[in-house]
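In this notebook, the sequence line spells out the residues, with the fold written below as integer tokens. This is how one looks.
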Amino acid sequence: MIGTSELPAVNATLNATSAVFLGLGYRFIRQKRVAAHRACMLVAVAVSVLFLVSYVTYHAQVGSKHFEGQGWARPVYFSILLTHTVLAVVVALYLAPVTLYRALRQRFDRHKVIARWTLPIWFYVSVTGVVIYFMLYHWYAHA
């Protein structure tokens, strides 16, 4: 059983996994390997849903962790956190659901239009989630 203290690492792993599958999905669609693209994107969605459940569970039980860095690291961290948070909301509430809906309805012309926005933003959110984890829990953990 995973304890609450392990959830931040689990969340970072889920974010990294999402980024990997998003990248693979992009590669497969560029190669016109539609079935592989579909499988990767569905895994990315499933992993992201698991992340959201784990993230909400952790923060409901623990609350927020404060960034301990000083100097130049503070504005860097908060810039990443702000863009990550705003874009995560946009991806979770609009871009990913609409992109997925259009694909499942086989509206590939419309799916492709929004996916060109969804993919890089979702990828950014996944990668910056990992960066935030390392900045919060490892970079200054032993300072």
In short: The mean pLDDT is 95. Residues 4-139 form one domain.
